[in-house]
Design a protein that fits this description.
Shape: globular
Distance between the termini: 20 Å
Largest sheet: 4 strands, antiparallel
Oligomer: single chain
Strand content: 25-35%
Number of strands: 4
Structural class: alpha+beta
Number of helices: 2
Radius of gyration: 14 Å
Length: 90
């Protein structure tokens, strides 16, 4: 059985300045604000206000009613005011 690797990319245009956008999205403490409320997103890591390469973020999410799972991501790349990449670890 071959292992499949999936990649999810998304692009969105916002009517704000790039610096304002970066400030919001690069602050991992805002993850809960952009996650659908029915997922009961709960951050378990102590977070700083900016993402950085090597940062591990641990959180709980509800996949189905009554089923919460631990989700672990690592920030692998950051180009200031351009992009960051997070990869699921567990």
């Amino acid at each position: 059985m071959a292992l499949k690797i999936y990649r999810l990319e998304h692009k969105q245009i916002l009517p704000i300045k790039k610096t304002e956008c970066w400030k919001f999205f690069s602050d991992p403490r805002n993850l809960q604000k952009i996650t659908p409320p029915d997922m009961n997103f709960e951050i378990k890591s102590d977070l700083q206000e900016k993402v950085y390469p090597g940062q591990i973020i641990i959180y709980l999410i509800k996949l189905f009613p009554g089923i919460k799972v631990t989700w672990v991501t690592e920030i692998t790349q950051v180009i200031e005011e351009e992009f960051f990449i997070d990869e699921q670890r567990f």
